[in-house]
Specification:
112 residues, alpha+beta, three-stranded antiparallel β-sheet
Length: 112
């Protein structure tokens, strides 16, 4: 996948279901629903050409129908991060994580 798609998938997959947005009566002004930071990420994904609802539905392990194939770890103040592990088509898992940079970087075991 290209970087733009990877970035958009991260923004759509690693956000809470409660976060999203819709457009106001003018059809232009986004109305955020849920966490404002996550909503901004989802809006950015749309500006990259990816609708968050579509990405969430297409990613195995993230969609409502395939959630049992993925693993979600919600944000907690003790973990200081949230993550989704979703199966890759070629085997193994891809982990999408967001949170405090020092926490995320301390968990990195491979770099590419």
């Amino acid at each position: 996948t290209d970087r733009k798609e990877s970035l958009a998938h991260f923004m759509c997959v690693c956000t809470m279901d409660e976060s999203g947005f819709r457009y106001g009566d003018d059809g232009k002004t986004p109305i955020f629903l849920g966490n404002p930071t996550e909503c901004a990420l989802l809006k950015m994904a749309e500006e990259l050409g990816y609708k968050y609802a579509d990405v969430r539905e297409l990613v195995v392990g993230r969609s409502a129908n395939t959630a049992d194939q993925g693993v979600s770890k919600v944000f907690t103040s003790s973990r200081k991060m949230m993550s989704w592990a979703v199966p890759k088509p070629e085997g193994g898992y891809r982990v999408y994580a967001k949170g405090a940079s020092e926490i995320i970087l301390a968990r990195v075991v491979n770099t590419f």
